[in-house]
Specification:
heterotrimer, A mainly alpha (448), B mainly alpha (629), C mainly alpha (111), A: 448 residues, mainly alpha, B: 629 residues, 2 domains, two-stranded antiparallel sheet, 27 helices, 73% helix, 3% strand, globular
Chain lengths: 448, 629, 111
Amino acid sequence: MICSIIVRNKGSFRHIAAFGLLILLIANILETYGKDFFHVNTMQLLQFDRFGFLFNSIALGATLIYVLLTGKEIEKSGKYAAEYFTLIFFVLCGIFILSAYDNLLMLFLGIEIMSIPLYILTGSDKRNLKSNEAALKYFLMGAFSTGLMLMGIALMYGGTGTFQLEVQRISVGMYKGVSFLEITGLLFLMVAMAFKVSAAPFHFWTPDVYDGAPAVFTSFMATIVKAAAFVAFIKLCDVRMTATLGAIDWKLLFALIIVFTLLIGNITAVFQQSVKRMLAYSSIAQAGFMLFALFNVNDVAKEGLLLYTAAYSLATIGIFAILVKMKDYTFEGYNGLAKTQPVLAATNTVFLLSLAGIPLTAGFFAKYYMLAAVVKTGSYIWLVVVGVLFAAVSVYYYFRVIQAMYFRNGNAATETITFSFKTGLIILAAIIILIGILPQVLLNWFYF
Amino acid sequence: MHQYLFLIPALPLAGFLLLSLGGRHLSRKIIAWIGVGSVSAAAIFTIILGLQFLQAPPPEGSYTQTLWQWMSTENFSCAINLRVDALSLVFLFIITFVGALIHIYSSAFMRHDRDYARFFASMNLFVCAMLLLVLADNLVLMYLGWEGVGLCSYLLIGFWYETPANCHAANKAFYVTRIGDTAMAIGLFLLFKELGTLNIPEILQQAPQHFTAASPNITLIALLLLAGGMGKSAQLPLQTWLPDAMAGPSPVSALIHAATMVTAGVYLIARMHVVFQLSPVAMDVTAIVGALTLFIAGCSALVQTDIKRILAYSTISQIGYMFLALGVGAWSAAIFHFFTHAFFKALLFLAAGAIIESLHHEHDIFKMGGLRKKMPLVFWTFLAGAAALAALPLISAGFFSKDQILWYAWSAGNGSPMLWFVALAGAFITAFYTTRLMIVVFWGEMKTHIGEYPGRAMTIPLVILAILSVIAGFIEWPHNMVHLTLFSDLVQKVLPATMLQDDLPEEIVFQIIAAATALFGVYTGYVFYQGNKALIEEWKQSSALMQIRNFLFKGWAFDQLYDALFVRPFKFLTRINKSDLFDKLYNGIALVSRRLNQLFSISQNGSLRWYIVGVLIGIIFILTLQLML
Amino acid sequence: MPIQYYIALASALFCIGVVGVLTRRNAIIIFMCIELMLNAVNLLLVAFSKMPFNIAETGASNASAGADAQLFVFFIMVVAAAEVSVGLAIIVMMYRNVHSVDINFLNRLKN
């Protein structure tokens, strides 16, 4: 349904891309409020619900901002600018499928439609060995995880006889409806999803790929794509995993993964020298936080995930947009940015504060909701403590950037900054603060 | 009208934003217009709102405006609501109206200052925070205002930050009030834990049902809130910061450290009066703290030589009266004294500022003298303020409010002759040191040459405040004289009426004693400093008396006491810790994280094969975990 | 033939693929091993399509079941083809730059 609109944009430039995104965004919001444009019989493969629509809106909005802020960089990054935009639209198409899938086939297709263009984008800087290496690593590991995922789906099919997300259980005698095959399959599927959201110990690809890929595309991968993987994951958890609660102790499993992810992401980010690589690790740490939503899927968690997605994506897009403009990606490269580019430094500070979860920014409420979702379970309170501790650790490395910008002397070299770029950044920072002060504005959409 | 309520705090906020963001590029004239204009506009709005409120009181007793829902989760929601009832209206009026006058005054007072814009930005922010404090309808928002005024106080005390002493004073004010703030925050947490809400009307409604009277919980909460109020309002034992806070510019002292911020504690207690009423212990503690403070601070004011420090101690002492009134349950009397005190104390500070500026920043009263002829306008206005401070009977606003407090200190349900006696002694001391101040500054021969006379922007606020210092008391008469009780009628819409004890002596007796005490204090002062100067000289010879004097001069040596009690032991502990005992712990954490980082770095070795092994180990781990369970 | 045999065969193929991914140095051969994993899944799916496991276990029979799994297999083939085209392009790009397809050279990005 939405794909058909996308294809139209094939072979277009930045402005057309932005325009197309805007149309999509408007269409999507209207759709959210019940205006049907045209109806497609999806044969129960896709199911559009409010959560999915909301997420689509966030993804589209974030992409729009992304294109507006860094569109020029995309054009600069290679000869095939138009193709890059097309690929981004393909990725978006995959994301929409993921936000609406109701069938494991669509999950598989969505993941693949989303991933394959990303392999190309990662390697788009053809002369750069790092980019090559990142692309190959990403591709091989991605394909490997696809294998795992398919194995999982196949086993689940064997166990239940259907690809639908919701399973009609039949219990006969001793057989309680959840078979060994299904559980094994579900575990494989979970591993593949954990791989996509870069949860430990399946995170190994993340730092290398984010570091190697051109910064513009890292921005896209680290934000919107990752969020989409989370949305797919939470859907899976919501329907299929809760259905097998009796057979598997998901909570323990997730708790272990969360702690491990937070530990690796945060501890490693602390010692990084390059801001770009630090952001890669911090995105692992943030993924650890988003996993809290999967820990116990309830309304608070879903709300929280949307809020987190929005807060995290917007802030990260902003930070990357500034990073792209920097000549030097190390912490030293940021020294004295406040003197040379005060607007960039100020907005960057807002973004970093939001990522760190300081109150009055969007990130604070995002983290609050995540933790509240766990508190609601009543048990595993120690997990909340761990989360708060690691949030405190994260403040350290985010503030390192702020410290470099404001309190170090240096000559932070940037490329020429246009006025419209600055305006864009200021608007983005304003949105983040606005969500921090009025989180209900975003969340009120959720209630209907 | 009340739908524009948000404008009252929003205007100063807008002024602050304009000045802090664009202050560098604006001319002084525009800065003054913005700074003064925003507060004045807020004052005009307040007055319109107040008139409307008085003419047609809203049926539920308050105007409420919901700005937005800040956050809302299942068991906690916090709306940004503004609410005006009679109590906050009084505070609102004082803050905006006196604030506007002080802003006008400062536009001239600060005219030579380099950081004109920074001054007005901070002042506007202060007004905004203070308005939030009194308009808040939940304690979270109130706490925001509470901390906001603390911040602005810090910024403005240290306004002339080049002098280290000023920064030290700012830090001291911040630290000392922080003790109270922390206690208050804990009190708020407890309150939330018990009642599940921080909305003020809900608390007032639910508290009597939830707590049995005098239960330990409510006492604890009330005492913690009281501690918060004591910190902000410079009451014993957290009073030491206020005299040092005089390091800020005089308008700051007038606005923040006399008229508004230091009375935030009074507001807090009056706001939460139901909580306090449920706990007799907390009420008694409040009354005793007030009585002790008013006496101790009054004695210190007797011997100070710095004009602003005299006024500072007298402020502490007057707020002590308010606490005393709150403690005995004379709610409206406390607020009434706040009302009159705001006028005359702001006036005294502003007049003192004018004198100080004219005399080349001379603070010592013994180097002033003879200003009666040279600065007649300042003299007359100062006289009006001093008369109110000394509570001269019938011709000053201070008399009406202080007389009420004195009467209730004995007669109110919680009062006692002892409290009354201390308050009376305080009244005597007040009259005494006020006379001393007047005589030393305005009579005698001139000792310092006058540089620059205050301009019209400075004198007009003085005159207005002087008139108010005289007439503001007439809206509330003792009921045995004239039946006019406008103020208590208004405030008692919110606060309970004062309960009286049975079989009391006639009220008129108290009034006569109070009036006589004030007059006697003035007379004594006259005798000592004008009539029989030799006596003082004689006393100065006596070492015992000089020691007492020095003791009082240092504010009962509280600073030294705290130094010995807290600062020294703390320094001692830090000396013990010279070898960084605790740092070992932190270094340990750092070491562990560094080792972990090394471990993770090894795992992230760039080899694809290793990564896939990692994934497989993860899978095998998960599968075995699942099979085991 | 019982379904268990098919499961065992597919698992064996899958494991061979995994081991191949682990031990081989040549990127193209690793890629082929991944294809082997996918084909193991295909085999398994087709097997399940004719003999659904839990249906066999619970003793019910359903003649029309299984078409969706066969459909799935086609989708896997299509996606695999897409992956091959992208993957080979990346490998060729790699080869142009370093004149090797040995993954042991992939170690510029670390720590």
